[in-house]
Amino acid sequence: LIRPMFYDAYHHIENISNPGGEEKIYTITGYICETDTFASDRKLPEIREDDYLVFYNAGAYGFEMASNYNSRFKPAEVLVKDGKASLIRKRENFDDLLRNQIVLS
Q: For the whole prediction, is pTM greater than 0.90?
């Protein structure tokens, strides 16, 4: 999801793993070294290691604008329709990242 970095696009974020947790203020960032901030000063239920955060209204731009820059895996995509969540694209892994590379001898 790159639009927040490009022009401060707003996406509602929900912690679905700990919805009843004590609310705290967070800055939500990714794991690359450049500007990788999705949200600043957001009040969310406590975020613990391995919690799942949902970024709403990402639409088609999530995957289409994704990049493998800095050896970053493209994320899984989940479609929510009529209250039911369905995995529509698996998260990439290291093998996916190397799949199309050719080693020169």
A: no
